[in-house]
Amino acid sequence: MSKILSIALNPAIDISSDADTVCHTHKTRTHNQRQHAGGGGVNVARVIVELGGNCELLYLSGGATGTLLEAMLKPLDVRQHRFGIHDPVRVAYNVRELSTNLEYRFVPEGPLVTEEELAPVFDLLETSDADYVVASGSLPRGVGEDIYARMADIASRNNARFILDTSGEALHVTLVKAKVFLVKPSLGELQSFVGKKVDHENAGEVAQAIVRSGAAQYIAVTLGGEGAILVSADRVHRLPAINVPVQSAVGAGDSFVAGMTWSLAEGHDIGEAFRFGLAAGAAAVMTAGTELCLRDDVLRLYGAIKG
Question: Where is the Carbohydrate kinase PfkB domain (predicted)?
Fold first, then answer.
């Protein structure tokens, strides 16, 4: 089994609740509160553990909320590398309005992190023996937009495959300055990267142009209710969405990335990993709030995928 290192530079304490109706000004009474350690890289590690993978977690943590995050992560069966920062870990909040089944997601920008606080992170990466390095999530304030590109270069020198799931300028800079093994943008993130209209019909062609430029070996574009596309230099592979009851979209993209990474680490080819990622993402929306996917659901859905 290959080793996976999941990186969470901007972890969060994710709180989710239900409310009958969400309204402005007046108090919105909530119930069914749930809380989990979250943020992209943390969610990836949680899913890989759920699937039975060999994963390490690198994360930043500070303040009173950081102490709480560490306590929430303690039961997670992974080797953990905590790096202290001065500012507190962010708290994200998600409310599902039962009357409409709509979700309202409140996601803070996160702590201010200095280059000095990041230095030991790069020291660990230089000595890591991971076969797959997954960088997932937004960047905290103060961090250079090229940080994932720098990490990708280190992974390349260590003969590790670098997998990226981020957005905005961090995505743009990484794909311009470094080559990654796999990147997973949503349709909106792909459109933002290329700076022109992208839809379900031309997404494969647009992503393939990026692959052929040398920025990534593979791109997996998630299309929400339309499924996903896996793109290589010579193929565009499209799979439809899996029809499942939807509870929450929280963590679906992270579950998709984790499912693909776990499958690759198990020795499966990229096509099988793509199918497994789609199953993991679909399984995640079946669970409420921030609970992510369950192994039995993932395996059942994976077994039902054709193509």
Answer: 13-294
Dump pLDDT digits (tens) for 222-281: 998 889 999 999 999 999 999 998 888 888 999 999 999 999 999 999 999 999 999 999
Residue 254 annotated among the catalytic residues of the structure: yes
Task: Please tell me the predicted confidence (pLDDT) of residue 307.
Answer: 59
Give the three-state DSSP class for 167.
coil
Which candidate in 87, 131, 165, 254 is catalytic?
254
Q: What is the DSSP string of the chain?
A: ---EEEEESS-EEEEEEEES---SSS----EEEEEEEESHHHHHHHHHHHHT--EEEEEEE-HHHHHHHHHHHTTSSSEEEEEE-SSPPEEEEEEEETTTTEEEEE-----B--HHHHHHHHHHHHH---SEEEEESPPPBT--TTHHHHHHHHHHHTTPEEEEE--HHHHHHHHHH--EEEE--BHHHHHHHHTS---TTTHHHHHHHHHHTTSEEEEEEE-GGG-EEEE-SS-EEEEPPP----S--TTHHHHHHHHHHHHHHTT--HHHHHHHHHHHHHHHHTS-TT----HHHHHHHHHH---
pLDDT digits (tens, 9 = 90+) for 116-133: 999 999 999 999 999 999
Residues spanned by the domain of 273: 4-304
Total domains in the chain come to: 1
Q: Judge contact between 56 and 261, C-beta under 8 A.
A: no
Q: At 72, which CATH number?
A: 3.40.1190.20
